[in-house]
Amino acid sequence: MAVELDHTIVHATDPQASARFLTDVLGLDPPEHTGHFVAVEVANGVTLDYDQREQPITSQHYAFLVGEDDFDAAFARIREQGISYDADPAGRRPGEVNTRDGGRGIYFDDPDGHRLEILTIPYGGWTGA
Asked: Rounded mean pLDDT of the chain?
């Protein structure tokens, strides 16, 4: 059997708000309640299961590979909502888009400070083929 990621748990002070932030930005289906988690499913079936936690939340990094059209749509929503973004994970290039490996990518933070990333080509140009 091949090994695949099934889900990951994302700590959040308000799971519903954080899950909704992600679905709104990425244009995904609304989050669903599964037990005490608020789950967001991405196209490959992996879920991000938001779990209630108190502050302080330890920031994690979540990167999402998207198509060009999906990048354009998410990037437009980010700008429309006034969400700060930058071209590098450390935030040293605010308001810029990176073009590594011939693709496009940006970083931005969710309500609990998790570092989110959208990119159109995996780093190194790997396409899985």
From this structure: 94
CATH of the domain spanning 7-119, picked from 3.40.50.720, 3.20.20.70, 3.10.180.10, 3.30.460.80: 3.10.180.10
What is the pTM assigned to this prediction?
0.92
The reported pLDDT for the residue numbered 129 is 45
Query: What's the DSSP call for residue 14?
Result: S
| SS3 letters across 49-98 | EEEECCCCCCCCEEEEECCHHHHHHHHHHHHHCCCCCECCCCCCCECCCE
Cβ atoms of residues 114 and 22 within 8 Å: no
Indicate the SS3 state at residue 4. coil
